[in-house]
Structures are given as structure tokens and as C-alpha cells.
Amino acid sequence: MEKEAIRINKYISQCGICSRRETDRRIEMGRITINGRLAVMGDMVTDSDEICMDGLPVKRTKKEIILAYHKPEGVVCTTSPKEKNNIIDAIGFPERIYPIGRLDKASTGLILLTNNGQLMDDILRGSHYHEKEYAVTLNRPMSPEIYEAMEQGVPILDTITRPCRIIKRKGRHFHIILTQGLNRQIRRMCEYFGYRVQILKRLRIMNISLGDLPEGQWRYLTEEETIQLKKCCAERKVSNETGNAPNERINQ
Length: 252
Prior knowledge:
Blueprint: E1 6-7, H1 8-14, H2 20-28, E2 32-34, E3 37-38, E4 44-45, E5 51-53, E6 56-57, E7 66-71, H3 87-91, E8 98-99, E9 108-114, H4 117-124, E10 132-138, H5 144-152, E11 155-156, E12 159-160, E13 165-168, E14 173-178, H6 185-192, E15 197-205, E16 208-209, E17 218-220, H7 223-240
Parallel strand pairs: 9-15
Antiparallel strand pairs: 1-4, 2-3, 2-5, 5-6, 7-9, 7-17, 8-9, 10-14, 10-15, 11-12, 13-14, 15-16
């Protein structure tokens, strides 16, 4: 744990509450205080300071937590206790953690949760082009021509989706690998061509696979998975310094 003073946005990020960028936004909204006064951008803090968000104290934890969770249908990827089916209550983990991105209520599969806000930000940053793989079942089989067109990009939400990769399965089934996450992206892409998604399951985020993790259960990432995950994030950061990819957020 760092003993020297660090910027308030980095401190909040290390608490696992939100990213540095989101912290800056909350500072501007007057939601963060330091020793009883409103925080301002660029404030420096240490663990001895009393830091609160929305009146509640926040402290950095010593142990990093990263979980893989097999989200069932009906669980909502929010930390709000006002949502009775929120993901935090569903997991029942004894320490404060936050989902990295989301899956919509009707979708199932892999979602990561952590108390490391910086890691959360690194994974969510769309300009890093992190891969996510999904298994899709449609209401009817899709033609090869549609698959090809979908791989090239689909006009939804006032933009064209990035090129993606599709792995054909039998009948109504296929896998799709995305490097972005527009709102309900896969469902909207299929709807554009006149198809309806009946089952959507996320199988992989970067190097982390769902595997045989039972629905509704969670597990800790292995040391090897964690090292590879952070290595990939670091490599993407470096390559992005000279790249010009759009800055989007995972939200599928």
C-alpha cells in the first residue's frame, strides 16, 4: 500500500469504487470530500486522510480481488441495492467489489468483478480492443451472406460496428468475437438483418474463459490468469499511445 500522497482520483480507483475518469466526474458533482471539505481536481491524499463519497468513508483494501462469475438470466449488473436482483446480492461476496462492464438482464455467462478500479478502467476502455466471445442462438438459421455482412460492420446506434469474427455452428447457432461493446450490440446487429436473439451467453473476456463454471457460481482468477490479464492490459496501453482507435466502453 502506498504511504506517500497520491492524486485523489488514483486513490478512489484503488478503492475499487470507480475509474479515475469517473472519480473526476464525481468530484465535479461535489460527491467527494477530504477531511470534511469538498475535493477538487488534483487533490493529493494519503491513507491518513478521511475521504468520503456521498457521505460514506472509503478506504483502500490491501488484498486485490478479481472474480469470474457465471451470471444467470435475471441478474442485473448493478451495485444498487434498490434493484432486488442486483449482482452484488446474487454473489454475496463479503467484501466490496464491482462488476467490470455488464451483461443485460436476459443474457448469461462470464462477467468479471474486482476491487481494483484501475484494472476495471483498463479492461473497459474500448480503445484497447479487448476481445469478448459470445455464443448466440437465433430464432432461425442465418444465411452465409448475412454472416459475411455482419463481420464487416453493421449500422446501429448512429455508427458502424467494428469488424468482428463469427464462427458458424449448426443451424441457428454461432459464436461471435467482438472488440467493442455498444449497448445491446449483438442483439441490435441481428435485429438489423431481421433476426432475433433467443439465447446470448458470454464465454470469454480476453484470456479469461467461462469454462465449466456452474451458473450462479463464482471463482477467483488463478495467479496465471491474473498475470496474463494485466500483461494484456499493459501491452494495449503501450500500443494505444501511438494508435488512433476510438475511445469506447464495454457495455454489452
